[in-house]
Amino acid sequence: MIMNVGIDKMSFYSSDMYLDMVDLAHARNEDPNKYLIGIGQKKMAVIPKTQDVVTMAANACLKIIDDDDRNKIDLIIFGTETGIDNSKSAAIYLQNMLGLSRRGRAFEIKQACYGATAGLQMAKEYVENNPEKKALVIGADIARYGIDTPGEVTQGGGAVAMVISANPSIAEFEGTSTFYSDDVMDFWRPLYRTEAVVDGHYSNDVYVDFFKKTWDEYKQITGKNLEDFSAMTFHLPYVKMGIKALRAIIDEASEEHQDKLKTEFGFGKVYNENIGNLYTGSLYLNFLSLINNSDQLKVGDRIGLFSYGSGAQGEFFAMNLCKGFKNSELISQINADINNRKQVSVSEYETIFNDWVPIKDQELSFDTSKDASTFTLKGVKNHQRIYDRK
After folding, report:
1. pTM score > 0.90 for this model?
2. Using an 8 Å Cβ cutoff, are 376 and 388 in contact?
3. Among the four 79, 264, 292, 384, which has the fewest Cβ within 10 Å?
4. Which fold has domain 172-321?
C-alpha cells in the first residue's frame, strides 16, 4: 500500500534587515504606488555579505530539524540559482552544518526559480518508495538586479526548508502534476555576473502562458475545475505576477468562489510582499504564508501550486491540507522574525548591495558581530568559504 506523502515540516529564514518600498520609490523619483500597487511589494529583505544561500538554509532548518529527522533524512536536495561553487553543491555544506547522516544523497538542482519544485517531486517519489525515510528540500536564493534598474524593486532573498515524509503533518500530494518547458530567453544570469539579466515584459507573458498551459492540461487529465480548489498559490517574483496569473483563469469560477480565491490570495501574499523575491523559494513562501495567515482553510482543503522557472519550466500540482497544517509556535516565530527586522535607509541598502562577495580570486574576512544569526559566513580563504556557528 502506498502511503500518503507530503510536507511534514516547513520553515523560513531571511535577513533581519529590510528596505521600505516607499523610501526606494522616493529615491528613484517614482510614485510609491508604482511599487506598492503596480508591483505589489511593500518591503524588501536586504541580505548582508555575512549570509549566503548555505547559511540561510541552515538557519531555516534549525527551526524544524530534530534528532528523529537527523536519523531518517538521507536525501538532501538544494534548489538554488545562487550557487556558491560551480562544482560542489550547497547541499553538502548543509548536510555537515546540520549534523545529518553521511549515509545519504546530497546534491543541488538548478533551473532558475523551479529548482525547489524539481527537488520536491524527486523527494516525493523517493519517500513513496522508502516510506520509513525522510527527505530535506531547500529553496534558497538571493535576487539581485542592480541599483536603479527596472528589476530593483523585485529583489530580496531568503530560504524555505521542507521535510518530506510519509503521513505528513502539513500537506500531502494529490495525484498528477502537469508541466511544460521551452527554450526561451526571458531571464538568465551568466557565470560572470551576480546580477540577473531579464526581459521583464516577455518574462511576464511567458509566465502566464505556461500557467495557462499547465492548468488547462491539469483540468483535462483530472477532471477538476477551479471550484475544486480552496486556494491557488504561485511563484511570486513579485506579488502582482501572481495576481495576473489568477486573473487569467478567475472567470472559470462562480462570483462567490472568485471572492474566496481572492481572499485567500490576500493571505498568501503577506510574507512575499514583505520579503521580496526568493527565486526558488518564492512559491513555497507563498504557500507558507497562506496556511499561516488564512483563517478560512480547513483540513482536507485542496491547494493549487504553480511553479515557474525562467528559461523556462512550468509545473502545476495540487496538495491537500493535513491536520497539522497550523503550527502556532512556528507561526509566532516567523511573524516575530519578519516584524522585528531593522529598517535600513536607501543609502545603507546601496552600500550593502555594492559590498557583495565578488566573483574573483580574493581572500576575505567579514565582521559577523552584527549578524545575530546562528550560522554566518566569515569570509573566504584558500578559495574556500569559511562558515561559523555561534
Report:
1. yes
2. yes
3. 384
4. Peroxisomal Thiolase; Chain A, domain 1 (3.40.47)
CA distance 24 to 16: 18
Q: Are 309 and 80 within 8 A, CB to CB?
A: no
Grid cell, residue 185, equals 530567453
DSSP 38: I
Query: Which residues does the annotation mark as catalytic?
Result: 81, 113, 235
Handedness of CA 292, 295, 300, 301 (dihedral sign): negative
User: Domains of the chain: which residue ranges?
Assistant: 5-169+328-389, 172-321
Q: Which fold would CATH assign to domain 5-169+328-389?
A: Peroxisomal Thiolase; Chain A, domain 1 (3.40.47)
Q: Do domains 5-169+328-389 and 172-321 have the same CATH topology?
A: yes
Report pLDDT digits (tens) over 358-383: 888 999 999 999 999 999 999 999 99
Place of cell 500531502: 172
The pLDDT tens digits for 338-365 are 999 999 999 999 999 999 998 889 999 9
Give the side-chain half-sphere CA count within 13 A for 57.
Answer: 35
